Amino acid sequence: ASGTTPGQRNVPTTTYADVGGMRETIALLREAIELPIAHPEIFQKLGIRPHKGILLYGPPGTGKTLLARAVANETGAHFIAIAGPEILNKYWGQSEQRLRNIFSEARNKAPAIILFDEIDSFASARDSMSESFEATLVSQLLSLMDGMNDAGRVCVVATTNRPSALDPALRRPGRFDHEVEVGLPDPEARLHILKIHTRDMPVAPDLDLDTIVGLTRDYSGADLEALCREAALACMRRSINLRDFEQKVSTHKLGSLSVTTYDF
Ligand code: ATP
Description:
Blueprint: H1 23-38, H2 40-46, E1 53-57, H3 64-75, E2 78-83, H4 84-89, H5 95-108, E3 112-117, H6 133-146, E4 154-160, E5 176-181, H7 187-198, H8 209-215, H9 221-237, H10 242-251
Parallel strand pairs: 1-4, 1-5, 2-3, 3-4
Helix pairs in contact: 1-2, 1-3, 5-6, 7-8, 7-9
The structure holds adenosine-5'-triphosphate (ATP).
GO molecular function: ATP binding; ATP hydrolysis activity
Family: Belongs to the AAA ATPase family.
Protein name: AAA family ATPase
């Protein structure tokens, strides 16, 4: 969320270490976003214009938002995250003003990253909306992006599950002209994601994450995170059973009082 007081930096705490897999995607984003922020002189020297807009597309829960947060944090950029549906609903009646404010906040606090999450929720093809309110918003967004001349200092990132539903004008050069696919994680990435989401859990030392990788073929990162949480909750809810007593009977030394503290 934005809503920062003047002068205050809004930088998320997510780092690249929180992102499982996606090594190539991270490298692409670093080149597209981090490099122009850290070394604008390279772009000036080469006479090339950094991308203004980057479109991250792929199935739900694959870490698109997570990635945008990590890039903002790692570059120290001011971060303004807008949920697409929020622009339509929460700011109903003031959406255009809200869009203008977002862009001026970014300019004032540059380097900045503006994230439009689920951009398709308000930026679908305008033909299908004719003269609707959404069509006005898309036009507004396009003119704000066209007017951006802080080359590389402000970057607009948008995420969508349905790139083909977007208004094609948004995908033209000078707008969201760099598209990066974020797909479902492969086995290596799933292992990495499972490690991240179990790193603070008291898992058994012999827990075989490779077996879980084999069982979770079509899982997204968000599915894997939910699975880890459910497994932890199941363990917490499990009542103590006969097997627990049997195991203890076999090792218990009579007359000894042992107190074990668990550090969760
Ligand atoms: P949507 O398209 O539904 O908005 P998304 O692609 O933006 O989804 P996120 O919102 O970033 O996905 O993912 C939700 C949560 O799932 C993240 O906050 C994170 O906890 C977990 N997650 C997803 N992908 C990964 C990943 N690659 N590594 C670690 N965690 C992940």
